[in-house]
Design goal:
The complex is a heterodimer. Chain A contains 19 helices and 13 strands. In chain A, the strands form three sheets. In chain A, strands 7, 8, 9, 10, 11 and 13 form a six-stranded mixed β-sheet that branches. In chain A, strands 2-1-3-12-6 form a five-stranded mixed β-sheet, with helices on both faces. Chain A starts with a helix and ends with a helix. Chain B has one domain: MetI-like (MetI-like fold, Orthogonal Bundle), CATH 1.10.3720. Chain B is built from 14 helices and two strands, in the order ααββαααααααααααα. Chain B has a two-stranded antiparallel sheet with strand order 1-2. In chain B, a hairpin with a 7-residue loop joins strand 1 and strand 2. The radius of gyration of chain B is 25 Å and the shape is flat. The chains are: A alpha/beta, B mainly alpha. Chains A and B meet through helix 1, helix 3, helix 4 and helix 18 of A and helix 2, strand 2 and helix 14 of B.
């Protein structure tokens, strides 16, 4: 309240001065060192690099993954005594807010974990901040180590426009899929077996409801959980088409599959298969409720396994969402953990590449398995996990999904704003406010607008 | 200017009239203020005139980002929500605070210090803690719904934070809870400074409690009300943490507010220019409201 009339024009004047000075923030991407396909042609030898400090920013702070990374870092340093790893571990949200500043700063970390999709990885590539890894992928045989479906999710087109194809910009360590956790006690009491087909699953839901149990526990206050639930439902109707759409080459979202999935979600809410106040219940709270015996099923990702197992022990089971026919190929939402990428201005790209290879080697897979983490490519240790344990079920489910090519990427990869559009619209569907038709139209509007922008970018790139 | 002329110049001035040297005294503070507040704010103004994703080269946007503030319903809604929340964050705390202060100053209550402390406590707690606590109170099986069911009002129970109609008022009530204590303590302190004679005179003239409140307490508290309004309006419009923790702007976008939108656009959807425009608009709005309050309520001529 001091002297508003004088301070405010002064500030405006300052802004105008900056504007007039013509200094515009950001980079045009030309500063990228390796704008080719990765610099190396022979297997890099970190020992030859001399005394090196490798700065690594990751978000693996949860129990299992944190333990696994800590151990692998220690082993890498022991293998290459001249290399010291400076690790900065932040939670996913914290990493998301600080990473952009760190990577575009003058002294970026060497290795970072970049979130797949348009807002993060594609933006980084367009700004020339990540180094392409195709050469390393050849040298280290990543191309054969990983199924193509997974590698593609870490690709960005050469012009930094499209997600899901083009050059490789990262490699993921862990796998993840949205599965069906179940409470063995509750199923047994209701006279049910873990379902072998989708029909058997939905029939079981009705049975559970009749007996006064909550069939599926679900909390959607945090907005994103419904994306996973909806993804699983949509995959039941059109898995392959959905995947194409997410990767920008499908028929879009104004489809029968979208409407059917939304109708199913509404129907489940109406029948009480999902809890009534789902929009007001937190994701973690829902998981806690399920763990304490409230709810026969919980539909969420493998990342929750360690936490659920801690409370439920042997009562916990996990299967991929059952296929349409018994013995059929399962499909579900899933993919891999965040990509490990090398920044374009890293001074030690070769050491960084060796580090990435080490983190994703067969040995690393075994370390992950021992820490209860699902490796993207299960190693020998994963094969020895007892198949009747929940960890064994997770590994088995992952193998079946990978073999059947049954993983559909997260729907929010579709456009830069899709997370917002989809999560907000799905809260509407869950509350019964948004009709399936309206949902399909809303999603298509966002998707269609983005495709138009992409088309303009392609034309601009070609004419350049 | 020769020294004698300078001395002459000063002699001509009345004692106590402002002198240029005064600016020298505020210079250190002004420098800090400029470096940490004015310059960043200038930067925000500048960013708000650009289309920038935070990484690649920015392109000039002119007034596009500001035009969107009026044209884009997704940006208009947060401001509408914020203004509605002011009823809960500012008007209600001041009203309740006044009532409590009037009651507490009239009737001697045993354990007054205890009640004052309890009512002020929400101000001392970090807002994150407040938000986490209320999130569990308002949960579908939380304290509020359990209480409603226990007293036979189960039909009123609902997932407060997930209900399109009730989420905004529910978040607002948290703000009321936080702000009331502050207002009450401010007013209690103010009431004590009102001369007792005024109350005595009012009572001799036959004024009842209501008349006394309107004729003596309310005018006496005018400056305090202005302070309380200013503080709560600023806190209400800047409100970010409560929304971030309780609803993330949901369900749908029913509880999104400008401050949350700034964070969301700058860090999550790579629209730095738009985020800066929202921030600048929010600053202007806060400015306008606080100036209005200081003129209308406090009666000050700025």
């Amino acid at each position: 309240m001091g002297c508003p009339r004088r301070a405010f024009p002064a500030v405006l004047a300052l802004g105008a001065t900056l504007l007039a000075a013509g200094c515009v923030p950001g980079t045009d991407g030309s500063g990228a060192a390796g704008s080719g396909t990765g610099a190396s042609t022979a297997v890099p030898d970190p020992k030859a690099a001399g005394k090196t400090t490798l700065t690594v920013w990751d978000q693996e702070i949860r129990g299992g993954t944190n333990g696994e990374i800590t151990q692998l870092n220690r082993e890498f340093e022991r293998k290459y005594p001249n290399v010291r790893i400076k690790r900065v571990a932040r939670s996913f949200t914290d990493l998301k807010t600080t990473l952009k500043l760190a990577v575009s700063g003058n002294n970026p970390p060497d290795v970072i974990q970049a979130n797949q999709g348009y807002p993060d990885m594609v933006s980084f590539v367009r700004a020339g901040l990540l180094a392409p890894l195709d050469n390393y992928a050849g040298i280290y045989d990543w191309n054969t180590r990983y199924p193509n479906t997974l590698l593609n999710l870490n690709r960005v087109s050469t012009d930094g426009t499209d997600f899901g194809r083009g050059r490789l910009y990262g490699i993921s360590q862990t796998g993840e899929f949205v599965g069906l956790y179940y409470n063995k006690d509750l199923l047994r009491k209701a006279g049910l077996e873990p379902p072998k087909s989708w029909g058997e699953f939905t029939a079981g839901l009705a049975r559970l409801k009749e007996r006064g149990e909550l069939p599926v526990q679900f909390g959607n206050l945090d907005k994103y959980p419904a994306i996973h639930t909806f993804g699983v439902l949509q995959d039941q109707y059109a898995a392959a088409a959905t995947r194409d759409t997410v990767l920008g080459r499908g028929s879009g979202f104004d489809t029968e599959a979208t409407k059917d999935a939304a109708a199913t979600l509404t129907d489940w809410m109406r029948r009480g298969y999902l809890p009534k106040g789902a929009n007001g219940l937190g994701y973690d709270d829902a998981a806690k409720k399920f763990a304490s015996g409230d709810g026969a099923y919980l539909m969420t990702g493998t990342w929750l396994l360690a936490d659920l197992k801690k409370t439920m022990g042997d009562k916990l089971g996990l299967i991929p969402p059952p296929p349409a026919k018994p013995g059929g190929a399962p499909v579900t939402t899933g993919g891999q953990g965040l990509a490990w990428s090398i920044t374009s201005r890293s001074r030690h790209p070769q050491v960084a590449a060796a580090y990435l290879d080490f983190l994703t080697s067969a040995h690393a897979s075994d370390v992950m398995t021992r820490h209860g983490v699902l490796p993207a490519v299960p190693g020998p240790a994963a094969a020895k996990v007892a198949p009747d344990t929940v960890d064994g079920q997770m590994v088995d489910g992952w193998k079946r999904l990978s073999a059947a090519d049954g993983l559909v990427p997260y729907l929010d990869y579709a456009t830069p704003t899709f997370y917002d559009t989809l999560s907000a619209a799905l809260q509407g569907v869950v509350s019964g406010k948004t009709s399936p038709d309206k949902l399909a139209a809303t999603l298509q509007q966002d998707y269609g607008a983005f495709l138009d922008t992409q088309r303009e970018r392609h034309t601009a790139a070609e004419s350049r | 200017m020769r020294p004698t002329a300078l001395i002459k110049a000063y002699r001509r001035r009345a004692p106590g009239e402002p002198r240029a040297v005064g600016y020298l005294y505020i210079l250190p503070a002004l420098l800090v203020y400029a470096v940490f507040l004015l310059y960043p704010f200038g930067q925000s103004v500048w960013l708000s005139s650009l289309h920038w994703d935070g990484l690649t080269v920015a392109t000039p946007a002119g007034f596009d980002n500001y035009r969107d503030l009026f044209g884009d319903p997704a940006l208009r809604a947060p401001f509408a929500h914020a203004l509605l929340l002011l009823v809960f964050y500012s008007a209600l705390p001041v009203a309740i605070g006044l009532l409590l202060a009037a009651a507490m100053s009239r009737v001697r209550i045993h354990g007054m210090t205890f009640f004052r402390t309890v009512l002020f406590l929400p101000q001392v707690l970090a807002l994150i803690v407040v938000a986490v606590a209320w999130r569990s109170i308002l949960a579908p099986d939380g304290l509020l719904n359990d209480t409603l069911r226990a007293v036979g009002l189960g039909s009123l129970a609902r997932p407060w934070l997930g209900d399109y109609t009730w989420a905004l008022p529910a978040v607002g009530v948290i703000g009321t809870w936080v702000g009331t204590g502050l207002c009450m303590v401010l007013f209690l302190a103010g009431v004590q400074r009102i001369p007792r004679e005024l109350y005595e005179a009012a009572r001799i003239d036959g004024a009842g409690p209501v008349r006394e409140f309107l004729a003596v307490t309310l005018p006496g508290l005018r400056p305090h009300i202005a302070v309380a309004l200013t503080l709560t309006i600023v806190a209400g419009l800047r409100n970010f943490d409560l929304i971030y923790v309780t609803t993330s702007g949901g369900p749908g976008n029913a509880t999104s507010v400008p401050a949350y939108e700034v964070y969301h656009r700058a860090f999550e959807t790579n629209q730095v220019g738009s985020a800066a425009a929202v921030g600048v608009a929010l600053t202007v709005l806060i400015f306008a409201l606080t100036v209005t309050v200081s003129r209308l309520v406090e009666g000050r001529r700025a």
